[in-house]
Amino acid sequence: EVQLVESGGGLVQPGGSLRLSCAASGFTFSRYDMNWVRQTPGMGLEWVSGINSGGSSTYYADFVKGRSTISRDNAKMTLYLQMHNLRTEDTAKYFCAARLTTSCPPAGYLYGMDYWGKGTLVTISS
Questions:
Q1: What is the Cα–Cα distance from 37 to 47, expressed in whole angstroms?
Q2: What integer best gives the mean pLDDT of the chain?
């Protein structure tokens, strides 16, 4: 069974840091581009970051660029998002999502995902 399981969320003060992880199983992880997407009641779904199947190319939404680093370990079948200088507006449930790799980069797309995790909640509050 295909699974994407996010972890690492929690309560963090503004300006703090957090590392999210997404453990994959049940599919050929190394053949999928991976994405982080977040959901808030007000904004709905927002694409956050993407990384190609081999991990050589990374992409970021403007609101996290410079504050976040996406990475992956294909041997461990795990995706990561390291975040720092967190803001209250970063509060959201963060999902990882997989899309079979194509010639198009995983940059900014919410649609066409093959698999979704259930999300991990990040709360930024003092």
A1: 4
A2: 96
